[in-house]
Design brief:
445 residues; alpha/beta; Lyase, Ornithine Decarboxylase, Chain A, domain 1; 2 domains; 12 helices; binds pyridoxal-5'-phosphate; pyridoxal phosphate; Diaminopimelate decarboxylase
């Protein structure tokens, strides 16, 4: 009854209750309050291992997996990634700080971003990150200046816009030549010449990321072909053989029964084959192949729990909406790009679905609808709604809209519950507010 492509590996139903990681989720909702997010450690570690093993199996040269932590980052998740032998793809100074507090090896980090600040570049240089992925010429000029006095040359990758239009939602397609990210192919020579002349930088390779939620492996293979052709061109033009090829992340995950399953092995096989073919065609040595999956590592490990707090009925008595105690502040995806999800009642999972019902979030936006026309049983007040596939791009994009404290995050494994991010408090929310200076107001005069 539970689709294994949508729910965590350890998810099961027992006496109508949803269990994950050896824990009954309705009891967790009671004990930790809602909205509440959980991560199944077995599923998380399993996906990380699946990537590493699949690449090792299909690619005969060295490969690395960097977890794209924009999907979900906190100290514990960074530690799990490090324990599983993954590097991290990070995009801000504070994400670097999380990695440092987690004890992550800085040389396993790629720093991304199209608008990195000087402070972020400074931190990357001072802490010795594995590579800065340079996005544009302005950033490159600043990095050249900042790295000039550094004892060790800073490795860099160049982000290329490979001009491949990924078949995904426009908001998460990033590979077109006019997308905001990366150097158009024609602009690469200027950047390469600047780096080769900069004593503080070491050009290590090329990177591209064409978007997220990609199921057509041919588009990723085409990205590899473009990058290898560019590597061969750089060798021909400048006599340097770059050692790293990073075709980004982006493998799709299903959120509903109708969507295809995540195929990590097929993905690794397609990338490895494309890299080997392209390298053979250009007589280029096999580079270090680095991939950066985010969503396909953490989405299915996560489940969001909400409490049904009210309902709306039509004049004819039909149930139209379940109102729950979370929504777009903890999961913006349905409002942002009409993302769909699958849900069940965690405390009455064996009740048969009745007429489709929509699940409305609690925030003051009519677009705050978490699920549209979901096949759910007629819910009662107090029921616990569990949303599958909630690990990626939910909490990492969460806001405090309507002054809502962000949910707690629990890591579950073999009946053990670990709070890895506590719920935000009202005091946290108010901590940055300062009252008006004590001046006379016009009325008080
Ligand atoms: C540069 C880069 N790498 C990797 C990823 C991860 O993508 P996904 O979570 O779809 O695997 C992203 C996400 O947009 C990204 O921008």
């Amino acid at each position: 009854m539970l689709n294994p492509h949508l729910w965590p590996d350890t998810a099961r139903l027992e006496a109508g209750q949803l269990w994950v990681g050896g824990v009954a989720l309705p009891a967790l909702a009671e004990a930790y309050a809602t909205p509440l997010y959980i991560i199944d450690e077995v599923t998380l570690r399993g996906a990380m291992r699946a990537y590493r093993h699949a690449l090792a199996r299909h690619y005969p040269a060295p490969s690395r997996v960097h977890y794209a932590s924009k999907a979900l980052l906190n100290i514990a998740v960074a530690q799990v990634a490090q324990q599983e032998g993954l590097g991290l793809d990070l995009v801000s100074a504070a994400e670097l700080l999380v990695a440092r507090r987690a004890g992550v090896d800085m040389t396993s980090i790629h720093l991304h971003g199209n608008a990195k600040s000087d402070a972020e570049l400074h931190r990357a240089l001072d802490w010795g990150v594995g590579a800065v992925v340079v996005d544009n010429l302005d950033e490159l000029e600043r990095l050249i200046a900042l790295s000039a006095g550094h004892p060790q040359p800073q490795p860099v990758l160049l982000r290329v816009a490979p001009d491949i239009a990924a078949h995904t939602h426009a908001h998460i397609a990033t590979g077109a030549a006019d997308a905001k990210f990366g150097f158009p192919l024609a602009a690469l020579p200027v950047a390469i010449e600047r780096i080769l002349a900069a004593p503080g930088l070491h050009l290590r390779g090329l990177h591209a990321h064409i978007g997220s939620q990609i199921f057509e492996l041919g588009q990723l293979a085409a990205t590899v072909q473009v990058l290898v052709a560019a590597l061969a061109q750089i060798r021909a033009q400048y006599g340097v053989t770059l050692e790293e090829l990073s075709p980004g992340g982006g493998l799709g995950v299903p959120y509903t029964d109708a969507m295809p399953a995540t195929d990590i092995d097929g993905y690794a096989q397609a990338l490895a084959a494309a890299t080997q073919q392209a390298c053979a065609a250009h007589n280029f040595p096999l580079p270090l192949l680095t991939v950066e999956p985010g969503r396909s590592i953490i989405a299915r490990a996560g489940v969001a729990l909400y409490r049904v707090v009210a309902r709306k009925f039509a004049a004819d008595g039909r149930l139209l909406y379940l109102h729950v105690d979370g929504g777009m502040a903890d999961n913006i995806r349905p409002a942002l790009y009409a993302a769909r999800y699958t849900a069940l009642l965690a405390n009455r999972a064996d009740a048969p679905p009745t007429a489709p019902v929509s699940v409305a979030g609690r925030y003051c936006e009519s677009g705050d609808i978490l699920l549209r026309d979901a096949p759910l049983p007629a819910a009662q007040l107090g029921d616990v709604l569990a949303v599958a596939g909630a690990g990626a791009y939910t909490l990492s994009m969460a806001s405090t809209y309507n002054m809502s404290p962000r949910p707690a995050l629990l890591l579950l494994n073999a009946g053990q519950v670990q709070v890895i991010q506590r719920r935000e408090t009202e005091e946290d929310l108010l901590a940055r507010d300062l009252p008006l200076a004590a001046t006379e107001t016009p009325q008080s005069r």
